[in-house]
Amino acid sequence: MAIRELKICLLGDTGVGKSSIVCRFVQDQFDHNISPTIGASFLTKTVPCGNELHKFLIWDTAGQERFHSLAPMYYRGSAAAVVVYDITKLDSFQTLKKWVKELKEYGPEDIVVAIAGNKTDLGDIREVPMKEAKEFAESIAAIFIETSAKSAINVEELFKKISRQIPPLDPQDVESNDSFKLSRQPLPLNRRCC
């Protein structure tokens, strides 16, 4: 079975739960006291997808404005970007639209974009209507899903949806393993998670 390395970056405001989503997906853990990411953290997980194995090289970027200028280093060469917002914070959804605009202008042409509304466990204080977010995602041909890293709702499904959007390898590419591996870039890391 062919193994494909796929670079995935997570973008969005600070505090929306990007690190929690990654930790839930990779380690099936949730930490109530997780501290903000500095620069970016890096984790991997391999999952089956059809006749392939997808090894996700996941870059969890910092959401603070002072780290915004580093983001292009992470989304360049990415197979997919997950733009996360907090369903209880309308501002985070507005920021998400800026991230999407930047990705469309400067990101890879064929990048798979996923919009993830996190913290569905706090639905009673929701500020972002699901319908509005879903319509926005549809307008840009993005994957849309609502998640709860805390309750482990739809986190696995988010990455499965991304896997299904990645075009399968051409059989000729399988013969040359190097043709579909993405190089790892030396970037500032914060390997802390959960």
UniProtKB/TrEMBL annotation:
<dbReference type="GO" id="GO:0005525">
    <property type="term" value="F:GTP binding"/>
</dbReference>
<keyword id="KW-0968">Cytoplasmic vesicle</keyword>
<protein>
    <recommendedName>
        <fullName>Ras-related protein Rab-31</fullName>
    </recommendedName>
</protein>
<dbReference type="InterPro" id="IPR005225">
    <property type="entry name" value="Small_GTP-bd"/>
</dbReference>
<dbReference type="Pfam" id="PF00071">
    <property type="entry name" value="Ras"/>
</dbReference>
<dbReference type="GO" id="GO:0005769">
    <property type="term" value="C:early endosome"/>
</dbReference>
<keyword id="KW-0472">Membrane</keyword>
<dbReference type="InterPro" id="IPR001806">
    <property type="entry name" value="Small_GTPase"/>
</dbReference>
<keyword id="KW-0967">Endosome</keyword>
<comment type="similarity">
    <text>Belongs to the small GTPase superfamily. Rab family.</text>
</comment>
<keyword id="KW-0636">Prenylation</keyword>
<keyword id="KW-0449">Lipoprotein</keyword>
<dbReference type="InterPro" id="IPR027417">
    <property type="entry name" value="P-loop_NTPase"/>
</dbReference>
<dbReference type="GO" id="GO:0003924">
    <property type="term" value="F:GTPase activity"/>
</dbReference>
<dbReference type="GO" id="GO:0030670">
    <property type="term" value="C:phagocytic vesicle membrane"/>
</dbReference>
<keyword id="KW-0547">Nucleotide-binding</keyword>
<keyword id="KW-0342">GTP-binding</keyword>
